[in-house]
Amino acid sequence: MPALGAGMNRIWLVLRKDALVLRRSPLLFGILIAYPVAIALLVGLVAGYASSKPRVALVDEDNLPATVVLGGKRFHVDNTIKQVSRNVRLVRLSADDAQRQLRNGEVVAVVTVPPGFIATLEGMVKSPRLEVQLSHGTISSRVDQQVQALVYSLNRQLQRAYIATNLKYVTLILSGGKGTFLGEPIDVIGLQRSEKLLHRMPQTHRVHTLEDFVHDARLALANTGDALRATAHPIQIAHTGNRGRTSTLSAQVQANAIALTITFLALMLAAGSLAAERDENVIGRLARGLVGLGHLVWAKVLLASAVALVLGVAIAVAFGVIIDVGGVTGGEPWQRLPLLVVGLALAGGALGALGALLGALAREARSASLVALLVVLPIVFLGLIPAEVVPPAGWASTVLPFSHAVSFFRSALFDLSPWGEVLRQGLWLLALGGIFGVLARLGARRLLA
Amino acid sequence: MSDQPLLAARGAGRRFGQTVALEPVELEILPGEGLALVGPNGAGKSTLISLLAGALQPSDGRIERRKGVRVGWAPQRPAQYGRLSARENLELFAKLEGEADPEEAAARLLERFDLPGNAKPSANLSVGNRQRLNLAIAFLGAPDVLLLDEPTAALDPEQRRRLWGRVDALREAGGAVVFASQHLEEIERHAGRVAALRDGRLVFAGTVDDYDRPSADTLFA
User: Fold this and answer.
1) In this structure, is residue B185 part of a structural domain?
2) For chain B, what is the domain count?
3) Is residue B132 part of a domain?
4) Which of A10, A282, A288 sits opposite B54 (nearest CB)?
């Protein structure tokens, strides 16, 4: 036990020395904090770009007029296109330009209005066709969805006119009067007038039967408007107000931001500070019995863990304040801080052990920092790729601490019952920290060479 | 008891990959003794001192240290934390060496080695002051054996005189010193024995009287 106490004391002395050195390097420490925050913002911007409007070419081979009248309703073509293309940016191009831009990726799809489109539309008997060509690649399915959404919006605009036109005929059948059909004038007696005429006729069994039919037909046609609208919209979406977090304050974004920041910090700090012991030529002095290589590695792991803890809590508190001030609901950021602290310590330690391994392999502080920087980006991006989308990325990130840290933080901050997930991810982080720590201890012998 | 070596290399050698830095060496350091390591650059002097200090582990053989013997080591390139002041370096290593009163030990060595006691980071000290701090750290923990690698290379004459005064006092008290040096005057004045190395091999071990200038000239040629 005294040996254990002496070992802990030595780790504590090295840890305190490192904290002092860090305090005396404000520029380095500032950059270490600012850099991951900047990267987190850039990742956010890239994520934002993922939901930006794709550019879609509109090829007008029908010479669309400025206005179209359908069922008595006047449509301004440009305004209608603006209204329905909220999710895409439609650009009018010639057919050749559109094909060229589709090939070189400047537009993600080409929507062609073929000749005769407006005439077919105005006839209101047949559905006109729009031709759609999509680019190949990873976002083609998303573009397809957005083009479908565009056509859906256009159909919603047009179907009102279609329903109104159809209802005019129904009204004509109900009330009678003059109208046109396929361009020919027609005069219709109407069900109401038919019923009155039948009433004045001698009341025979046949007349009664006809009266009953006319009565039932009137009732049925009176509901045609609702039936047509229901046919057009079997299911309608009702927006019932906005609740919950904005996407920028979502559980995923917070968990990613904290994990990303501490990953950068812990990896680079542990790698740089272990290699710096060799750069300062102190490693030999320590290794001759003052501080064993194992103790030295664990001191760096604890340093990474402590810094990750402080910074992670600071970020979580900042998020909590923003959420409180903004009156955003969802999640329990304050109540869950103690659980987050455990996760930060474990994640910081596991990342610190990986950083120490990099520092031991690189041997020089500058090389170690560079290697850590090069390693941290793939670690983070592997962790950000959903495992169900790219399974190999999921397998790789299973043996790295980042994804476990994200899962731990997300569950700790927002799950109603976080214990199972937190325990599972905590054990992963402990195991990874232990494995990387042992490897770092073995690798630290290189520092003496 | 007094004839038992304080420190001994028993066939201790060191390789770095395929490169042999030091072939197996047999060497004993006795109480009261001054042992000078001589040889051209790259001969293996620093490697041997590092092995004796325990800063390097031997690839062959072993290093034996008499029970209870404490060793102080000053490597050729100063080994200290550049962002800590001289006082903070001394206090940190005093704690690691297990000094009963680290602050007092640091203050004592600051005075003895004429080091600045301010908060100036040691990286900003002059070359001579950094070497003095390097040597002062070696004196922490009341060492019985001092291992000094080119200790006077950056010291002015007065500081050299003071250093050798402290080293001689240690030897008179039953301690020992092993030092690497290129200065024959220092060797003749402060060493009883000489171990000469060349290309990682021990080529001479004997008294200073047996080690004469002509052979030294051959050695360094």
Assistant:
1) yes
2) 1
3) no
4) A288
